[in-house]
Amino acid sequence: MPEGKRLPVMEEFYSIQGEGFNTGQAAYFIRIGGCDVGCNWCDIKESWNAQTCSLTETDEIIRRASECPAKAVVITGGEPLNYNLCYLCTGLHARDIRIFIETSGSQPSSGVFDWICLSPKKSSPPLSEIFHQADELKVIVSDDTDFTWAEENAEKVNPGCRLFLQPEWSRRNKILPGIIAYIMVHPEWKISLQSHKYMRIP
Description:
- The chain has six helices and nine strands.
- By secondary structure, it is an alpha/beta fold.
- It has one domain: TIM Barrel, CATH 3.20.20.70.
- Helix 4 links the parallel strand 7 and strand 8.
Protein backbone atom coordinates (compact mmCIF):
# COMPACT_ATOMS: atom_id res chain seq x y z
CA MET A 1 0.00 0.00 0.00
CA PRO A 2 2.82 2.53 0.60
CA GLU A 3 3.84 1.96 -3.04
CA GLY A 4 0.30 2.68 -4.18
CA LYS A 5 -0.29 -0.75 -5.70
CA ARG A 6 -3.44 -1.08 -3.62
CA LEU A 7 -5.77 1.76 -2.69
CA PRO A 8 -8.83 2.01 -0.39
CA VAL A 9 -11.52 2.70 -2.95
CA MET A 10 -14.96 3.77 -1.80
CA GLU A 11 -16.46 3.74 -5.28
CA GLU A 12 -15.71 3.88 -8.99
CA PHE A 13 -18.16 5.03 -11.63
CA TYR A 14 -18.42 6.50 -15.11
CA SER A 15 -20.28 9.80 -15.23
CA ILE A 16 -20.20 13.49 -16.16
CA GLN A 17 -18.04 16.01 -14.32
CA GLY A 18 -20.50 18.27 -12.56
CA GLU A 19 -18.31 20.97 -10.99
CA GLY A 20 -15.72 23.58 -11.84
CA PHE A 21 -13.86 24.30 -15.06
CA ASN A 22 -14.38 20.86 -16.60
CA THR A 23 -18.13 20.68 -16.02
CA GLY A 24 -19.92 18.65 -18.67
CA GLN A 25 -17.07 16.31 -19.59
CA ALA A 26 -17.38 12.55 -19.33
CA ALA A 27 -14.89 10.88 -17.01
CA TYR A 28 -14.25 7.78 -14.92
CA PHE A 29 -14.39 8.72 -11.23
CA ILE A 30 -12.23 7.05 -8.60
CA ARG A 31 -13.23 7.99 -5.06
CA ILE A 32 -10.51 7.05 -2.58
CA GLY A 33 -11.47 6.65 1.07
CA GLY A 34 -9.83 8.42 3.99
CA CYS A 35 -9.92 12.10 4.86
CA ASP A 36 -7.87 14.20 7.28
CA VAL A 37 -10.01 17.32 6.81
CA GLY A 38 -13.58 16.31 7.68
CA CYS A 39 -15.68 19.33 6.68
CA ASN A 40 -18.92 19.46 8.65
CA TRP A 41 -20.90 20.13 5.46
CA CYS A 42 -19.29 17.30 3.47
CA ASP A 43 -21.92 15.33 1.51
CA ILE A 44 -19.69 12.26 1.19
CA LYS A 45 -18.94 11.61 4.84
CA GLU A 46 -18.91 7.90 4.04
CA SER A 47 -15.53 8.50 2.41
CA TRP A 48 -13.83 9.67 5.60
CA ASN A 49 -13.02 6.26 7.07
CA ALA A 50 -10.62 4.35 4.84
CA GLN A 51 -11.16 1.22 6.96
CA THR A 52 -14.67 0.85 5.53
CA CYS A 53 -13.44 1.01 1.93
CA SER A 54 -12.32 -1.93 -0.19
CA LEU A 55 -8.55 -2.24 -0.52
CA THR A 56 -8.36 -2.56 -4.29
CA GLU A 57 -5.56 -3.62 -6.61
CA THR A 58 -4.48 -0.51 -8.49
CA ASP A 59 -3.95 -2.52 -11.67
CA GLU A 60 -7.65 -3.41 -11.57
CA ILE A 61 -8.60 0.24 -11.16
CA ILE A 62 -6.46 1.12 -14.17
CA ARG A 63 -7.99 -1.69 -16.23
CA ARG A 64 -11.56 -0.58 -15.51
CA ALA A 65 -10.77 3.05 -16.23
CA SER A 66 -9.15 2.16 -19.55
CA GLU A 67 -12.35 0.41 -20.70
CA CYS A 68 -14.35 3.67 -20.64
CA PRO A 69 -14.94 5.60 -23.88
CA ALA A 70 -13.72 8.85 -22.33
CA LYS A 71 -10.00 8.72 -21.71
CA ALA A 72 -10.25 10.86 -18.60
CA VAL A 73 -10.13 10.01 -14.91
CA VAL A 74 -11.12 12.15 -11.93
CA ILE A 75 -9.42 11.13 -8.68
CA THR A 76 -11.34 12.37 -5.68
CA GLY A 77 -12.11 11.47 -2.08
CA GLY A 78 -11.96 11.78 0.81
CA GLU A 79 -8.53 13.25 0.41
CA PRO A 80 -6.76 11.25 -2.31
CA LEU A 81 -3.32 12.69 -1.56
CA ASN A 82 -3.28 10.75 1.69
CA TYR A 83 -1.88 8.00 -0.54
CA ASN A 84 0.95 7.47 -2.99
CA LEU A 85 -0.66 7.96 -6.40
CA CYS A 86 2.48 7.56 -8.52
CA TYR A 87 1.72 3.96 -9.54
CA LEU A 88 -1.88 4.84 -10.45
CA CYS A 89 -0.88 7.88 -12.48
CA THR A 90 1.89 6.04 -14.33
CA GLY A 91 -0.51 3.25 -15.29
CA LEU A 92 -3.22 5.62 -16.46
CA HIS A 93 -0.86 7.79 -18.49
CA ALA A 94 0.59 4.68 -20.13
CA ARG A 95 -2.91 4.16 -21.55
CA ASP A 96 -3.18 7.77 -22.74
CA ILE A 97 -5.72 8.66 -20.04
CA ARG A 98 -5.82 12.24 -18.78
CA ILE A 99 -5.84 12.57 -14.99
CA PHE A 100 -7.77 15.17 -13.02
CA ILE A 101 -7.49 15.35 -9.23
CA GLU A 102 -9.69 17.07 -6.66
CA THR A 103 -7.74 17.85 -3.49
CA SER A 104 -7.76 20.07 -0.43
CA GLY A 105 -3.98 20.31 -0.73
CA SER A 106 -3.53 19.27 2.89
CA GLN A 107 -1.04 16.53 2.00
CA PRO A 108 2.11 16.44 -0.16
CA SER A 109 1.47 15.71 -3.81
CA SER A 110 2.39 12.37 -5.36
CA GLY A 111 1.82 11.44 -8.98
CA VAL A 112 1.66 13.46 -12.19
CA PHE A 113 -1.66 15.09 -13.05
CA ASP A 114 -3.02 16.83 -16.13
CA TRP A 115 -5.32 19.01 -14.05
CA ILE A 116 -5.28 19.90 -10.36
CA CYS A 117 -8.41 21.32 -8.78
CA LEU A 118 -7.48 22.78 -5.40
CA SER A 119 -10.39 23.14 -2.99
CA PRO A 120 -8.88 24.61 0.20
CA LYS A 121 -10.44 24.03 3.60
CA LYS A 122 -10.01 26.31 6.62
CA SER A 123 -9.68 23.44 9.09
CA SER A 124 -6.62 22.05 7.28
CA PRO A 125 -5.15 24.68 4.93
CA PRO A 126 -3.23 23.69 1.81
CA LEU A 127 0.52 23.13 1.87
CA SER A 128 2.37 25.94 0.15
CA GLU A 129 3.69 23.67 -2.63
CA ILE A 130 0.25 22.98 -4.10
CA PHE A 131 -0.61 26.59 -4.93
CA HIS A 132 1.77 26.94 -7.88
CA GLN A 133 0.61 23.54 -9.21
CA ALA A 134 -3.13 24.28 -9.17
CA ASP A 135 -4.93 24.74 -12.48
CA GLU A 136 -8.17 25.58 -10.72
CA LEU A 137 -9.06 27.04 -7.34
CA LYS A 138 -12.55 26.06 -6.19
CA VAL A 139 -13.70 27.54 -2.90
CA ILE A 140 -16.86 26.28 -1.22
CA VAL A 141 -18.93 29.15 0.15
CA SER A 142 -21.18 28.45 3.12
CA ASP A 143 -21.20 31.94 4.66
CA ASP A 144 -19.87 35.43 3.97
CA THR A 145 -16.52 34.80 5.70
CA ASP A 146 -15.65 32.38 2.91
CA PHE A 147 -15.19 35.24 0.46
CA THR A 148 -12.23 36.46 2.51
CA TRP A 149 -10.88 32.91 2.64
CA ALA A 150 -11.25 32.68 -1.14
CA GLU A 151 -9.27 35.85 -1.73
CA GLU A 152 -6.52 34.75 0.67
CA ASN A 153 -6.03 31.60 -1.39
CA ALA A 154 -6.37 33.37 -4.74
CA GLU A 155 -3.36 35.53 -3.82
CA LYS A 156 -1.20 32.39 -3.61
CA VAL A 157 -2.01 30.65 -6.91
CA ASN A 158 -0.44 31.34 -10.29
CA PRO A 159 -1.99 34.10 -12.45
CA GLY A 160 -3.35 31.53 -14.92
CA CYS A 161 -5.24 29.53 -12.29
CA ARG A 162 -9.01 29.56 -12.84
CA LEU A 163 -11.02 30.86 -9.88
CA PHE A 164 -14.41 29.41 -8.86
CA LEU A 165 -16.84 30.01 -6.03
CA GLN A 166 -19.23 27.14 -5.31
CA PRO A 167 -22.22 27.33 -2.98
CA GLU A 168 -22.34 24.71 -0.24
CA TRP A 169 -25.14 22.46 -1.45
CA SER A 170 -27.36 22.43 1.65
CA ARG A 171 -27.35 26.27 1.77
CA ARG A 172 -27.28 26.94 -1.97
CA ASN A 173 -30.57 28.84 -2.13
CA LYS A 174 -29.50 31.18 0.64
CA ILE A 175 -25.87 31.70 -0.35
CA LEU A 176 -26.15 31.83 -4.15
CA PRO A 177 -27.42 35.44 -4.37
CA GLY A 178 -24.39 36.58 -2.37
CA ILE A 179 -22.03 34.71 -4.68
CA ILE A 180 -23.67 36.26 -7.73
CA ALA A 181 -23.36 39.73 -6.24
CA TYR A 182 -19.73 39.11 -5.30
CA ILE A 183 -18.75 37.97 -8.78
CA MET A 184 -20.45 40.97 -10.35
CA VAL A 185 -17.95 43.11 -8.43
CA HIS A 186 -15.06 40.64 -8.71
CA PRO A 187 -15.36 39.22 -12.26
CA GLU A 188 -12.10 37.28 -12.04
CA TRP A 189 -14.20 34.66 -10.23
CA LYS A 190 -16.76 32.34 -11.83
CA ILE A 191 -19.62 30.33 -10.33
CA SER A 192 -19.34 26.56 -10.00
CA LEU A 193 -22.57 24.69 -9.46
CA GLN A 194 -22.89 21.01 -8.60
CA SER A 195 -24.73 20.38 -11.84
CA HIS A 196 -24.57 16.60 -11.43
CA LYS A 197 -26.94 16.95 -8.48
CA TYR A 198 -29.39 18.94 -10.57
CA MET A 199 -29.10 16.25 -13.26
CA ARG A 200 -29.45 13.52 -10.60
CA ILE A 201 -26.42 11.60 -11.76
CA PRO A 202 -23.46 10.35 -9.64
